[in-house]
Design brief:
single chain; seven-stranded mixed beta sheet; elongated; 2 domains; 214 residues
Length: 214
């Protein structure tokens, strides 16, 4: 697996039923079953062609343990899921999936491609606590990953933690500090060209916090 997928896989804890939402090629689904992390896996994707790639990858080796669904998030899945991965989607799309009226699993592993702050606010609003929340670097890109649990006690997030991620503010890993320096450079360039005063103030506020972290 790639470093990105290995990082995501490392956050999936042993469970009975695992769901891979937006599974695309199904690599995580395969690893979860082959390494015995879950007894059963549901792979779901809104795209039938993408889901076929996952089905082809799994082959016939996991009969009775692997089930594929063309589904918008959890909509067509059974409600016995213990842990779900939603990775590689935009933050707003992730929030849409989490806004379902269906029963959500006790544990969520989330890797939004952008708008991670909106995802953090959504899961906390749903009553989850966040026990892992950090930035990592893989294949020339920075990724945010969030693990949320209904049984986790940490539910009170500050505004800075929503924006940057709690573990990043506490641990200040090398990957996060590199991202912070990169983000600060982007913001400083944007400030020079922004015309909206409210947007300019928001950027300056973020830049000031990044400088404090660095």
């Amino acid at each position: 697996m790639t470093k990105r997928l290995e990082t995501l896989f490392s956050l999936v804890e042993p469970c009975r039923v695992f769901a891979d939402i937006g599974c695309d090629h199904g690599i995580i689904s395969q690893e979860v079953l082959s390494r015995g992390v879950a007894e059963k896996v549901y792979a779901a994707d809104i795209s039938a062609p993408s889901l076929k790639k996952a089905i082809a990858l799994m082959g016939d080796g996991f009969d009775g343990r692997f089930f594929a669904f063309v589904s918008d998030g959890f909509e067509k899945l059974p409600d016995d899921i213990d842990c779900a991965l939603i990775a590689g989607l935009g933050g707003e799309e992730t929030v849409h999936i989490l806004s379902t009226e269906r029963k959500l699993p006790d544990t969520l592993v989330l890797q939004p491609m952008k708008n991670a702050d909106k995802v953090r606010k959504k899961v906390v609003g749903l009553g989850y606590g966040i026990d892992k929340d950090f930035t990592f670097f893989a294949a020339d890109k920075y990724y945010d990953v969030i693990r949320a649990k209904k049984a986790c006690g940490y539910r009170d997030y500050t505004e800075d933690e929503y924006v940057f991620g709690r573990d990043n503010l506490v641990l200040r890993s090398e990957d996060f500090l590199r991202y912070a320096a990169f983000r600060l450079k982007v913001i400083n360039g944007a400030i020079e060209n922004v015309s909206d005063k409210a947007a300019e103030l928001a950027l300056k506020k973020e830049a000031a916090k990044l400088m404090e972290l660095l």
